[in-house]
Specification:
mainly alpha, about 60% helix, elongated
Amino acid sequence: MAQVIIRNLPDDVVAGLKVRARQRKHSLEQELREILRAASEPSRDEIIADMDRIRAMTPIGSSERRSKRPVPDYSAGRCRIGSRRRMTSRAS
């Protein structure tokens, strides 16, 4: 793992981080790792922008082909929910 040294942090910033870490029952080091990890992950807006970019590159016809897949026919009684006894008792 890498190490990072940050110099010349104002005392009030460090004090605030220590309070935050204490409230979460973390060490200052652990709290700083979590803050930096969260800051390095893409934001929701960045993820949505990537999805829009990928969607724009997708050919229009591919979504039409997916929609023409056959849909299973469950009307013939092939898919039963619950036991037969419960199904017949409800019908009575």
